[in-house]
Amino acid sequence: MTATLERRESASLWGRFCDWITSTENRLYIGWFGVLMIPTLLTATSVFIIAFVAAPPVDIDGIREPVSGSLLYGNNIISGAIVPTSAAIGLHFYPIWEAASVDEWLYNGGPAHSLHGPLLRGAVELSFAPSLALLFAEQFSLASSFFFSFFHSIHFPPHQ
Asked: Does the residue 11 lie in any domain?
């Protein structure tokens, strides 16, 4: 029996990365959707955990009476929440660079708003697996409702 060894051309770093991502011989198949899904869901999960534990009180209805939902402000696992704000139309997408300060962003429910983008993208990526689509149905509907209401408030402003 004769064994022949073929010398493989040295592929570029990008070529090796593409081969590794799309290889079905890996123990865990990542694929191109996984390249987007894994970082976005890790971002959403870390923001959720940090906000659930340490987010400051939020002005939920615009009357300057903040509502706290995090564990550090006296809530337990059952009563804890990440409190969004509905004080103003157009705050449904509230990036940190639009606020005058980080305190203002936190007071207006910034952590809740920073969850919607990664959750929406991650849920869309996970929806390609039929068994996982049910797990993220609630998060997907929550995130998409915030985006739809944001775009609705841009295109259809309230009448005075």
From this structure: no
Handedness of CA 131, 134, 135, 140 (dihedral sign): positive
Q: Which domain holds residue 75?
A: 31-155
In three-state form (DSSP H/G/I as H, E/B as E, the rest C), the secondary structure along 118-145 is HHHHHHHHHCCCHHHHCCCHHHHHHHHH
Residue ranges in 65-136 assigned as alpha helix (H): 102-107, 110-126, 130-133
Number of domains in the chain: 1
Token pair 């990008």 is found at 14
The number of CA neighbours under 13 Å toward the Cβ of 148 is 6
- State if pTM tops 0.85: no
* Contact (CB, 8 A) for 93 and 114: no
Mind listing the pLDDT tens digit for each residue in 75-95? 888 888 777 766 544 545 677
What angle do the packed helices 110-126 and 137-155 form, to 10 degrees? Answer: 120
Q: Which ranges of the chain have pLDDT less than 70?
A: 1-10, 85-93, 117, 123-140, 142-143, 146-160
